[in-house]
Amino acid sequence: MDVEEAPAPGQDRPAPTVFELFSAFLQLGLVAFGGALPLVRQLAVEDRKWLSPEEFTDTLGLCQVLPGGNVINFSVAVGARFRGMRGALAALAGFVAVPTVVVILLAGIYDRYQHNVHVGHFFAGLAAAAAGLMVSVAWRIAVPLRRRPVSIAVALTFFVAIALLRLPLLPTMAVLIPGSILAIGRFGA
Amino acid sequence: MIQTLISLFIIFFQLSFLAFGGGNTIVPEMQRQVVEVEHWISAQEFTALFALAQAAPGPNLMIVPMLGWRIAGFAGLAVTSIANFLPSSIITVLAMRAWNKYKDHRWRPVIQAGLLPMTVGVIASTAFILVGASDKTPSATAPETLDYSWGLVAITAIAAAIAIRSRIHPLWILLAGALIGASGIGQ
User: Fold this and answer.
1) Is A93 on the interface with B (CB under 8 A)?
2) Nearest CB to A107: which of B20, B70, B81?
3) Are B81 and A100 within 8 A, CB to CB?
């Protein structure tokens, strides 16, 4: 891999090849445990200097608005930026390759040992902790809404529809997203 | 088998377009389709697989290939991965090209602000459903019904509190929860 002596801004940095994109994201998939985002930034901004910090934030902002996993979208966006559709596919394939093998192995272990009492307790504890982590994520992203009454009302409406009434997601979004955008555009957040 | 693969493709293709605000927003709908509509796996197994996918490296959507593998083997894995990852990726590439064009449009921050509470509501739903499915064990008196088990509720509560209050790596919290769970206390 090429390491630039000075992080020259703009067009001076060499664009990574399709193979470099694949191998960089393959390595990332190997080590990115429990939230890949900090490691993605390390790779793209600090190590390879593919993006400036501003470009990173801008690209990530786009990826968060679009459907799909944020980090998956980010790998696709970086690949596409340098090598078009082929670069996007190379980055995506590299990123999910190792984790796919890992989840197959984990599913096999679960399938084989789930009826063993001790292993069952182990998995139950793991699932309970994972649920707790999701509670913490919900908490973290909910805190910025605390002084925004319209946003709180929209969030609660979604919660009732999805969690309590178990309504299908597609029609719920089709109705509530335009409503949310119009309400916030009209009355503020 | 072909019928299962077609159903898997339709479900995960749809979900690809709905994952606003990250992969975890589609977990409730994924659970509804896979567990409640199609009855491919139980709610308990779904939650266990979700937890294992969280413990794996890489993006948090690894539950997608894992479910495909569990439900329909290698073909299922290929179908769910392609159906779920490809459409959102194509949208991302196209949006990247359009992004600079509308960079300063006045509706952009309004749309972002409008999507945020939706993300919060759906992520909270994900948490709610996972807690409901993962903190219950078969009742001692009536094994076909599920009751909350205090040991698992405690693991969830402590894991949430630690994750909110500290910057400790989530993998350690998962490992600690699994080890405390393995003791069998309160289950």
Assistant:
1) no
2) B70
3) yes
Contact call for residues B96 and A80 (beta carbons, < 8 A): yes
Residue A9 has pLDDT above 50, yes or no: no
ipTM: 0.79
pLDDT band at A2 (very low <50, low <70, confident <90, very high): very low
Of A111, A114, A140, the CB nearest to B164: A140
Q: What is the tens place of the pLDDT at every residue in A69-127?
A: 878 998 999 999 999 889 999 999 999 999 999 999 998 888 888 888 888 888 889 88
Using the Cβ of A152 and the Cβ atoms of chain B, whether some distance falls under 8 Å is answered with yes
Task: Give the distance, in angstroms, between the CA of residue A110 and the centroid of all CA atoms in the same chain.
Answer: 25
Distances (CA, A) of B133 to A55, B25, B67, B179: 40, 17, 17, 19
Distance of CA A27 to the CA centre of its chain: 17
Interface of B with A in 135-154 (CB under 8 A): 135, 137, 152-153
pTM score, whole prediction: 0.76
